[in-house]
Amino acid sequence: MSASLLRRGLELLEPSGREKVPPGLQRGRAGPRAAGAARRRKRAPEPGRNKATVKGRVVKSAIEEYHKKKPVNHLRENLQYMLKARLVADKAVTEKVLAQNRGRKSKDQPPEKTEKKKPKGTVFTEEDFRKFEREYFGIP
């Protein structure tokens, strides 16, 4: 639907008691070419300082700009934060958490640890071996 048809329809729907606004006070476009003219119109230069001049400009130091943007090393603060709270979780709890985070496939499971058997010490002493030698071999 064109704008003129829409305007005519709105004029028909206007209550009869209202008077039309005089054309000088009407808002909106004055004609079909008014929109293009508004686009072509240049904005009036705003009063203010002239940006072409150097007066009043602060010279920025390249070294200061570099130091502002230089990355900051937070290692020391992070270490102090981490070492401040020395709460160590129970081993059983940590094992449960690790087990939950692992996958369910057999390739994700860690190999089971078998406890190594400690070699038991002999019940015989050196004196017992010497005594056995004397009795068995007959060595005095």
From TrEMBL:
Pfam families for this protein: AROS
Positions with biased composition (Low complexity): 22-37
Location in the cell: Nucleus, Nucleolus
Region (Disordered) location: 1-56, 98-126
Biased composition (Basic and acidic residues): 8-21, 106-115
Keyword list, A-Z: Nucleus
Homology family: Belongs to the AROS family.
Protein name: Active regulator of SIRT1
